[in-house]
Amino acid sequence: TLSLGNFGDNRVVLEGLIGNQQPDSLQLAALVTMGKLGDASVPSILIDLWPKLSPRVRTGAADLVFSRGPWVLEFLGAVAEGKVAATDVEPARLKTLEKSTDPAVQKAASELLAKLKVGRRSDVLAQYRSALELKGDAKAGKVVFTKVCVNCHKVEGQGHEIGPNLASFKSRGAEAILLNVIDPNSEVNPQFVNYACELSDGRTLTGIIAAETATSVTFKRAENATDTILRSEIAELRSTGMSIMPEGLEKDITPQAMADLIAYLLSAL
To answer: If DSSP codes are grouped into helix, strand and coil, which group holds residue 197?
Structure first.
């Protein structure tokens, strides 16, 4: 019934329904209603709310803002200004926008894709590219995996399935593995974005959102530790815009050890 009314009259209600104390299904329904009303202020509302949206709701919000040319431009402008993290925009979506019939959308998408390709840790990545030329020892690489990766990844029965399934990297090759170890924030799947949750009792929890129900949110972090929090306990939930996988792992991995790790993963997956 809200979609039959005037957006100005219902704006406060709809914004209030997009909050982490509400079931995600209700938040998604509010997004659909905002889309039907089609008010020009919708993208600015979603840009302001963006850091607080859970992965599932964020996907719905992205579908909405990318559904109309002017909204796309406003959203990509917010990314360019740093209001929304560039890594929060899926490269596949940007590649689609590069083929838009709107020259302004094409230009904005191309510029953002170029920015993403540069990478924030390109200097460190350059130092470790030598690992791609070294001969790796899979047996030694298994030791590196056990030391550095088992807290969040599982291979051959070892470790915990917190981060992405590494099997997908076998087809992508050694360079993709190197990139994701050195610069984990260069391409972050929304499912593995780290969130910070402030609770009404003053505590703060962090982790990826592993599950959501109408009344609760479950967070997961390294070593398979989990916390399930009632929505009524949440004071604020905000995306960090960063992968749950930390930067700086190269401190514990030499280029040769990196070559060994890559050899192990390519042989074991």
So the answer is: strand
- The neighbour count for residue 235, using CB atoms within 10 Å, is 14
> What do you get for the CA distance between the two ends of the chain, in Å?
51
Q: Distance (Å, rounded) from C-alpha 49 to C-alpha 31?
A: 12
Q: What is the mean pLDDT of residues 7-23?
A: 92
Single-letter code of the amino acid located at 27: Q
Q: Which residue has the higher pLDDT, 79 or 223?
A: 79
Helices 138-148 and 255-268 pack at an angle, to 10 degrees, of 100
Q: For residue 154, report the phi and psi dihedrals to the nearest 5 degrees.
A: -125, 125
Quick check: 166 pLDDT over 70? yes
Contact by Cβ (8 Å): 65, 43: yes
- With beta carbons less than 8 A apart as the criterion, state whether 234 and 21 touch: yes
Distance of CA 176 to the CA centre of its chain: 17
| Cα three-residue angle 121-184-154, rounded to 5 degrees | 150
SS3 category, 212: strand
AA identity, residue 161: E
pLDDT exceeds cutoff 70 at 155: yes
